[in-house]
C-alpha cells in the first residue's frame, strides 16, 4: 500500500508547518479573526466583556461623583454652622429651639463625638485622618449608590471635625471641636457628628442586606 502511494502519489494538500498549521499562503485567503492583522496592523479583539467594562467605568465615576458631592455638602453645612455658632452663640446664653427639649449651646469639645474621651484628642485626630484615607482609597472600587451616599456622609463628617482638630485652639491636632446641638438629657453634638452617625447606620443596614461597595449582593 505504501509502495502504491509512492508510485501514484497523493493529492495536493495545503502547505503546513511543523506544528500542523496552514502556511502563509493558506492564511492569506482567510478572513481575519481575533488577533489577526489587517493592513499590517493588529486588530483588537472586542466582545461583550469589553463592552461591559466600558459601561462600568462611567457608572463607577458617577458613584464617585455622588460620594464627593455628598461629602462636600456635609462638610460645607458643618463648617458654616460652626462659623455662625462661634460668632453668634459662643459666650452667650443658650438659645431654646423646642422649649427645654432642644436648644443651641456653643461648647468646645476636645474629645470624640458626643464628648467622649477628652484625654485622647490626638488619637481621635489620627483616627479621623485614617478614616478619610480609607474612604478615598475605597472610592476606586465603588459602584453602589447607597454606599456612595453613606461613605460621603462619613467623609464629610470626618473632614468637618478634623478641620476643627487642626485649626482651632489650643493647637494643631489638639483643637477642640465646636458642638452646639443640645437635646435634653443627651450629649451636645454638631452636624459633622450627625453625618458620621447617619453614614454609619446606613452602612450597617447595607451590610445586613448583603450589598457590597462594588455593587454585588451576597447572601450568607
TrEMBL record:
The keyword Hydrolase applies. It is found in: Cell membrane. Residues 15-27 have a biased composition (Basic and acidic residues). Residues 1-57 are annotated as: Disordered. Keywords: Aspartyl protease, Cell membrane, Hydrolase, Membrane, Protease, Transmembrane, Transmembrane helix. The chain crosses the membrane at residues 64-85, 119-138, 145-167, 187-208. GO terms for molecular function: aspartic-type endopeptidase activity. Pathway: Protein modification; lipoprotein biosynthesis (signal peptide cleavage). It is a multi-pass membrane protein. The active site is at residues 179, 193. GO terms for biological process: proteolysis. Its EC number is 3.4.23.36. It comes from the Bacteria. It holds the Pfam family Peptidase_A8. It catalyses: Release of signal peptides from bacterial membrane prolipoproteins. Hydrolyzes -Xaa-Yaa-Zaa-|-(S,diacylglyceryl)Cys-, in which Xaa is hydrophobic (preferably Leu), and Yaa (Ala or Ser) and Zaa (Gly or Ala) have small, neutral side chains. GO terms for cellular component: plasma membrane. PANTHER family: LIPOPROTEIN SIGNAL PEPTIDASE. Belongs to the peptidase A8 family. This protein specifically catalyzes the removal of signal peptides from prolipoproteins. This is Lipoprotein signal peptidase. It comes from Streptomyces viridosporus (strain ATCC 14672 / DSM 40746 / JCM 4963 / KCTC 9882 / NRRL B-12104 / FH 1290) (Streptomyces ghanaensis). The gene is lspA.
